[in-house]
Amino acid sequence: MMSEQEALFDYCLRIGDSSLIIGHRLSEWCGHGPILEEDIAIINVSLDLVGQARSVLKYAGKVEGQGRSEDDLAYLRDVTFYRNLLICEQPNGDYGRTITRQFLFDSFHYLFLQELVNSTDEFLAGYAAKSLKEVTYHLQHSTKWLLRLGDGTEESRRRVQEPLDDLWRFTGEFFNTNEVDEILISKGIAVDLSKIKPLWEKRVATVIEEATLTLPTNAWKQLGGTEGRHTEHLGLILAEMQFLPRAYPDAKW
Q1: How far is CA 57 from each of CA 12, 53, 124, rounded to the nearest angstrom?
Q2: Long-range contacts of range 134-141, CB-CB < 8 Å, 24 or more positions apart?
Q3: Which of 19, 143, 147, 195 lies 20 to 30 Å from 252, alpha-carbon distance?
Q4: Distance between CA atoms of residues 129 and 137, nearest Å
Q5: d(CA 71, CA 39)
Q6: In angstroms, rounded to a whole number, what is the distance separating the alpha carbons of residues 74 and 16?
Q7: Do the Cβ atoms of 41 and 213 come closer than 8 Å?
Q8: Do the domain assignments include residue 119?
């Protein structure tokens, strides 16, 4: 049976890896935003998420107790040791697809952090309180753009409806639980995902309706990211993200 220490380490990886990978995805928009203001805005979101990842991965290293730093955990693990949600590693596509992916994730991330502030783990509670201020803006930003694109032209609506239909299968993983959750919920450390699921469903459905989009009805769920089973996209991300640290392991920045 998994120990509480092992469960907490895995839980921290789950939180940190999701922020790290989706933050890296958003960084790919640097210099390519549809307008200058959005280029700056989306990169600021990326910086927030990578900063959050650094904080929680540093704590994960302390919990593990094997001397690994946040850089070691970010750059020197193989793909099967990452615990990020699958939606975070999905390609950007056009800006409509990026916004749709971000809205679905932000809606979950915001509600998750709202609950995590009540954690009995002092670090995680403080981390959630600080991160929530940034993620509140992230959610406002992606919601605003989903509404604008959904209730815009026929073309703009298509560019968010199609990725909404495609990415919906990854949203079930937000609320999937395993032994890690069971151990940590019993200690008051982890978020009970069953509590936030109806809140997420209500909020997402409300915004989708306001954006004149159609709520997907596909109930099939693609799972595995939080247990180390990923799509082919994560390997490509890591090949780029880990090149310098692996090529120059002693380099200091």
Answers
A1: 7, 6, 11
A2: 134/48, 134/52, 135/48, 135/106, 135/109, 135/110, 136/110, 137/45, 138/45, 138/48, 138/49, 138/102, 138/106, 138/109, 138/110, 139/103, 139/106, 139/107, 139/109, 139/110, 141/41, 141/45, 141/102, 141/106
A3: 19
A4: 14
A5: 26
A6: 9
A7: no
A8: yes
- Name the CA radius of gyration of the chain, rounded: 18
With respect to residue 65, please indicate whether it lies within any of the assigned structural domains.
Answer: yes
What are 142-179's pLDDT values in tens digits?
999 999 999 999 999 999 999 999 999 999 999 999 99
Total number of domains in the chain: 1
Q: Is residue 253 part of a domain?
A: no
CATH, residue 95: 1.20.1260.10
C-beta of residue 164 within 8 angstroms of C-beta of residue 175: no
Query: Closest by alpha carbon to 29, among 119, 85, 96?
Result: 96
pLDDT tens digits for 177-190?
999 999 999 999 99
Report pLDDT for 91: 97
The tokens of 32 are what?
A: 């390519």
Question: Which residues are CB-contacts of 212 (< 8 A; sequence separation ≥ 6)?
Answer: 150, 151, 157
Give domain status of residue 252, yes or no: no
What residues make up the domain containing 36?
4-247
